[in-house]
Automatic annotation (TrEMBL):
This is Nucleoside hydrolase. Residues 5-307 form the Inosine/uridine-preferring nucleoside hydrolase domain. The keyword Hydrolase applies. Keywords: Glycosidase, Hydrolase. Pfam families: IU_nuc_hydro (PF01156).
Length: 316
């Protein structure tokens, strides 16, 4: 039995690998890609999403573009570069696949309503498109079976803060780009599992030399594409986990047994001068703010199991 999936994304190097991983998983049926402004503006992420589909020979998946600006703030500067093309300067050909006439939000609503109760969403970028879809159909949470998202930092490990990806000391990039949208989605009632920087940037996500060599030596173009992305990241002084972050959202859907989660009360800071976009988790034993939204946050990962799933999937 396959699971139907919408991927909301901002490709981006790690989005690209997550999309490929999902396309290659026989247990997933990708019904739509929606492009959001995040790693790049949405007009460029929509192009890159279609480049990745064409790399994989996939021409039947609709792609729709979200707005160029976040809902709740001006689009911020990203301190991390994904290359001139947003795909690690891999020079994939310009796509010939057409873009949907519908907006990303409308496509999300339409696909969910066509598959109500039997559809999941993987959110790999800022939550702008999901928040706009909620404006069109506030009942979406009860129609979606599961949502996984790369979103936030919850304090389970020190990497939640030492590897902060937003442009302040305590924020994660996806939430930082559109904190108001994230606050809306957190509170909407989705069956949400959030993968934060606590685990997504853990050193154990990094590829070992043996795993990297499997990608580089593979006959599969998508595996060699992944190896090129890792070389790009390492060449700029970063670790290979930067290329693999978003794939954790796919793994959390397909192999939830690899994830340890904690149910926490958590909200998004939408006004702080130093903390804009911070995901504030209330895990106090006493006087806890139980009016804050409840979500499942990943606190630990079977990293070897995840990396086996990733590399095996890319070279298969």
């Amino acid at each position: 039995m396959t699971s139907k999936l919408i991927i909301d994304c901002d490709p981006g190097i790690d989005d690209a690998l997550a999309i490929i991983l999902a396309l290659k998983d026989p247990g997933l049926e990708i019904l739509a890609l929606t492009a959001v402004t995040g790693n790049l503006p949405s007009d460029r992420t929509a192009v890159n999403a279609r480049k990745v589909l064409e790399l994989m020979g996939e021409r039947g998946t609709p792609v729709a573009q979200g707005p160029l600006q976040p809902i709740s703030r001006e689009y911020p500067h990203d301190p991390f570069s994904h290359g001139d093309d947003g795909l690690a300067n891999t020079a994939l050909p310009e796509p010939t696949l057409p873009l949907e006439d519908r907006s990303a939000a409308q496509l999300i609503v339409d696909v969910i309503n066509d598959n109500a109760g039997d559809i999941a969403i993987a959110v790999l970028g800022p939550m702008t498109n999901i928040a706009l879809a909620l404006e069109l159909d506030p009942d979406l949470p009860r129609k979606v079976s599961r949502m996984t998202a790369i979103a936030g930092s919850f304090g389970f490990t020190r990497y939640a803060w030492t590897q902060a990806t937003g442009d302040n000391p305590v924020s994660e990039w996806n939430v930082y780009v559109d904190p108001g949208a994230a606050a809306t989605v957190f509170a909407a009632g989705f069956a949400l599992t959030a993968v934060g920087l606590d685990v997504a940037t853990h050193p154990d996500v990094n590829l070992s030399p043996e795993r990297f060599d499997r990608l580089a030596a593979s006959g599969r173009p998508e595996a060699r594409f992944a190896a090129d992305i890792v070389r790009f990241v390492r060449g700029r002084g970063y670790q290979s986990y930067c290329a693999l972050i978003d794939s954790l959202a796919i793994a959390a859907l397909v192999h939830p047994e690899l994830m340890t989660t904690q149910r926490i009360h958590c909200a998004v800071e939408t006004r702080g001068e130093l903390t804009l976009g911070m995901t504030v988790a209330d895990v106090r034993n006493h006087h806890r703010w139980e009016h804050l939204p409840l979500l499942e946050a990943v606190s630990d990962v079977d990293f070897d199991g995840f990396l086996d799933y990733l590399v095996d999937g890319l070279v298969r």
